């Protein structure tokens, strides 16, 4: 496909852009080029022109103003029209859509924070592409995660893909989260993705005990590496809640959590230095589950309030109130 | 303009803030071009910020009302013969037969006119029926909303995302248009489906987000939506407790064990007192607002639960730009208009002068009967 050339549009009457209104606020000095492109685009839209030149025009405008929603909509309609016109030819349709994905990859790399790109992508795969494949999606996902390993939209899109493509080889996804957690153990999105995967596995077949034990060991290892890290502690709590008999599993982990906390000294209100406030919080919750250990929970919360996490003093005191 | 009783600590920099805000309402260089279609966001952020500082913003900008109102436009949607109306983000997007109104621009427009106390617009110009029809047309079968329609046939746009932000914006517009009871809302949207969608965004241990990862922005949108619908009771007590705790855990600290995070790239002891949007992320001005707004919806006595004084200090000392005016995301960035507005909003929420659910001052909501 040839590049954008403004001479291709010389026959188009420009739709005038309203401007120079009295007492305008926030007046943006748009360039002549911007005015011209928008003027052409609105005219073509009104005329329902779904041509190649209209398609090229949308690329050009998205380049300048990627947040301009109507243009994305226009582009989609042109593409839809092209797809319909080669209804009988699967290869042609596949090529068309793959070219579009190539183009979209470029736009994505240039606009990492724009969210329009992901919903546009979803509609291409859902409504237009004859044979979408997750293989085609992985490279861009990888590049985007390399660029920002906590990009919320990218992680959401990855999870959307797993559902959309009905992925069943979950081991690959688990390995993927492993590698990200290895490079940044604090990456909460990676931990969250892991939970999403286990929930997906559990939906197709109940998790078996050896997998559960293996995962608990995995979490323990990560906590031992960095005890003061909220992500694996939250993940542990979630994992026990979702896949285990929660109260038993939590009690079983008391000795593990006590490794990071000198619990007896805390019970005697001596407040020694400890390695992790999250371990102490875990213990407080574990002790709260049983009436006989409630007083122990109170002492843990007191420790959090006075020494280990004093910014949340009010929360910890509130927890003590709830125990009464 | 007559100055208000502002936060004492803002006093020194007030002139600079005003200059920063007025710059955004004046002639902007062409590098702002890509914001053109969503220009109303800039107008809203600047006007709301100014309304925090001044008593009489509405008088000062009286002469601009005509310009603001001219963004309100309506269309006849062929198949349903229903009229729809709303705001475009820029006059350059008003072209006959091309539907280009959006939910966000519409909310920003309505809130700007509310802040400017434009009674005439609400009484004589606004057509609430077609406005609410527009909102209704943006709802999908799963209960969520997209932010704009297909420019031609007026169906929900196939290329837009649908998430809690747009749910909030949709419901806020209906609220401003006068919907109060469930019956009022149900006239235009399917409330049950919306509630189901919101429920589907609940995370395991509190907070709302996509696919189970809680996010303070989405949490604020979900809770504000429920507040406007008066449906907070649909949340379970456990979920509320968990959400309160999740929100409180977003306040960053350098005290106690929290300082043992040398290897955490996203730990910065200067973030002390600020709020983050997710676990293990830096503090950011806007999340102070999203978190505190969520908290105040869940608990009347929210100030007794968090440490708002430290948040105030964080915003004033760390993200307030004393050189240029305005507030930044965090101290690594320049001030921008979005974080400036949410910085003011967070400070005013703490002072008790702000309606966080609608994101405008209490003065404005009271004056305009909202
Ligand atoms: Zn922010």
UniProtKB/TrEMBL annotation, chain A:
Name listed for the protein in its UniProt record: Protein farnesyltransferase/geranylgeranyltransferase type-1 subunit alpha
Naturally occurring in which organism (per UniProt): Kazachstania africana (strain ATCC 22294 / BCRC 22015 / CBS 2517 / CECT 1963 / NBRC 1671 / NRRL Y-8276)
GO biological process: peptide pheromone maturation
GO cellular component terms listed in the entry, alphabetical order: CAAX-protein geranylgeranyltransferase complex; protein farnesyltransferase complex
InterPro entries listed in its UniProt record: Prenyl_trans_a
Pfam families: PPTA (PF01239)
UniProt-recorded Gene Ontology molecular function terms: CAAX-protein geranylgeranyltransferase activity; protein farnesyltransferase activity
Cofactor(s) listed in the protein's UniProt record: Mg(2+)
Recorded superkingdom: Eukaryota
Family, per entry: Belongs to the protein prenyltransferase subunit alpha family.
EC code(s) of this entry: 2.5.1.58, 2.5.1.59
Alphabetic keyword roster: Magnesium, Prenyltransferase, Repeat, Transferase
Gene name of the encoded protein: KAFR0C03850
UniProtKB/TrEMBL annotation, chain B:
Pfam families to which the protein is assigned, alphabetical: Prenyltrans
Any one GO molecular-function label of the UniProt entry: metal ion binding
One Gene Ontology cellular component annotation held by this UniProt entry: CAAX-protein geranylgeranyltransferase complex
Prenyltransferase alpha-alpha toroid domain mapped to chain residues: 15-352
Keyword Zinc: yes
Keyword Transferase applies: yes
Family matches, as InterPro entries: PGGT1B-like, Prenyltrans, Terpenoid_cyclase/PrenylTrfase
Obligatory cofactor(s): Zn(2+)
Keyword field: Metal-binding, Prenyltransferase, Repeat, Transferase, Zinc
Gene3D superfamilies, A to Z: 1.50.10.20
Family of the protein in this entry: Belongs to the protein prenyltransferase subunit beta family.
PANTHER family according to UniProt: GERANYLGERANYL TRANSFERASE TYPE BETA SUBUNIT, GERANYLGERANYL TRANSFERASE TYPE-1 SUBUNIT BETA
Protein's name according to its UniProt entry: Prenyltransferase alpha-alpha toroid domain-containing protein
Organism: Kazachstania africana (strain ATCC 22294 / BCRC 22015 / CBS 2517 / CECT 1963 / NBRC 1671 / NRRL Y-8276) (Yeast)
């Amino acid at each position: 496909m040839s590049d954008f050339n403004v001479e291709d549009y010389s026959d188009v009457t420009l739709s005038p852009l309203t401007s120079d209104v009295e007492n305008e606020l926030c007046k943006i000095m748009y360039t002549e080029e911007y005015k011209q492109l928008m003027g052409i685009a609105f005219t073509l839209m009104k005329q329902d022109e779904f041509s190649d030149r209209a398609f090229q025009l949308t690329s050009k405008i998205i380049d300048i103003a990627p947040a301009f929603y109507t243009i994305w909509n226009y582009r989609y309609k042109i593409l839809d029209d092209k797809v319909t016109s080669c209804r009988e030819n699967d290869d042609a349709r596949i090529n068309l859509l793959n070219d579009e994905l190539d183009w979209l990859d470029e736009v994505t790399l240039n606009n990492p924070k724009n969210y329009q790109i992901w919903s546009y992508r979803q509609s291409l795969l859902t409504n237009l592409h004859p044979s979408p494949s997750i293989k085609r999606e992985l490279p861009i996902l990888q590049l985007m995660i390399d660029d920002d390993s906590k990009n919320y939209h990218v992680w959401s899109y990855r999870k959307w893909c797993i559902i959309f493509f009905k992925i069943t080889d979950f081991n690959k996804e688990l390995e993927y989260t492993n590698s990200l957690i290895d490079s940044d153990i604090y990456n909460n999105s990676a931990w969250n993705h892991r939970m999403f995967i286990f929930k997906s596995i559990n939906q197709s077949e109940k998790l078996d005990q050896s997998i559960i034990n293996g995962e608990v060991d995995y979490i323990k290892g990560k906590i031992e590496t960095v005890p003061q890290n909220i992500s694996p502690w939250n993940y542990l709590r979630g994992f026990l809640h979702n896949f285990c008999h929660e109260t038993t599993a939590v009690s079983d982990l008391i000795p593990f959590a006590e490794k990071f906390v000198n619990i007896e000294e805390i019970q005697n209100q001596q407040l020694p230095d400890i390695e992790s406030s999250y371990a102490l919080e875990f213990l407080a919750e574990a002790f709260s589950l049983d009436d006989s250990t409630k007083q122990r929970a109170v002492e843990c919360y007191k420790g959090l309030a006075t020494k280990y996490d004093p910014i949340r003093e009010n929360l910890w005191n509130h927890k003590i109130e709830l125990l009464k | 303009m007559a100055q208000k009783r502002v936060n004492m600590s803002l006093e020194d920099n007030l002139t600079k803030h005003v200059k920063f805000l007025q710059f955004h309402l004046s002639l902007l260089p062409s590098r702002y071009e890509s914001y053109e279609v969503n220009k109303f966001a800039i107008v809203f952020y600047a006007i709301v910020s100014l309304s925090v500082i001044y008593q009489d913003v509405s008088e000062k900008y009286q002469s601009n009302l005509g310009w603001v109102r001219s963004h309100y436009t309506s269309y006849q949607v062929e198949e349903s013969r229903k009229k729809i109306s709303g705001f475009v983000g820029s006059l350059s997007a008003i072209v006959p037969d091309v539907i280009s109104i959006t939910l966000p621009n519409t909310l920003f427009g309505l809130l700007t006119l509310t802040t400017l106390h434009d009674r005439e617009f609400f009484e004589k110009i606004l057509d609430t029926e077609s406005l609410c029809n527009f909102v209704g047309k943006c709802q999908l079968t799963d209960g969520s909303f997209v932010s704009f329609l297909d420019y031609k046939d007026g169906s929900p746009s196939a290329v837009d995302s649908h998430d809690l932000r747009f749910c909030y914006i949709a419901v806020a517009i209906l609220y401003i248009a006068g919907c109060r009871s469930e019956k009022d809302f149900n006239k235009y949207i399917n409330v049950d489906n919306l509630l189901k969608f919101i429920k589907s965004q609940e995370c395991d241990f509190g907070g709302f987000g996509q696919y189970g990862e809680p996010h303070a922005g989405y949490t604020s949108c979900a809770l504000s939506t429920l507040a406007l619908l008066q449906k907070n009771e649909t949340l379970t007590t456990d979920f509320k407790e968990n959400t309160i705790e999740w929100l409180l855990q977003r306040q960053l600290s350098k005290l106690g064990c929290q300082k043992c995070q040398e290897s955490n790239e996203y730990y910065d002891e200067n973030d002390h007192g600020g709020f983050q949007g997710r676990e293990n992320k830096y503090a950011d001005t806007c999340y102070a607002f999203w978190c505190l707004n969520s908290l105040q919806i869940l608990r009347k006595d929210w100030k007794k639960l968090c440490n708002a004084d430290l948040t105030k200090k964080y915003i004033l000392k760390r993200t307030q730009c004393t050189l240029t005016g305005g507030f930044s995301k965090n101290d690594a960035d320049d001030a921008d208009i979005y974080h400036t507005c949410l910085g003011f909003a967070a400070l005013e929420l703490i002072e008790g002068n702000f309606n966080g659910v609608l994101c405008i001052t209490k003065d404005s909501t009271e004056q305009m009967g909202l």
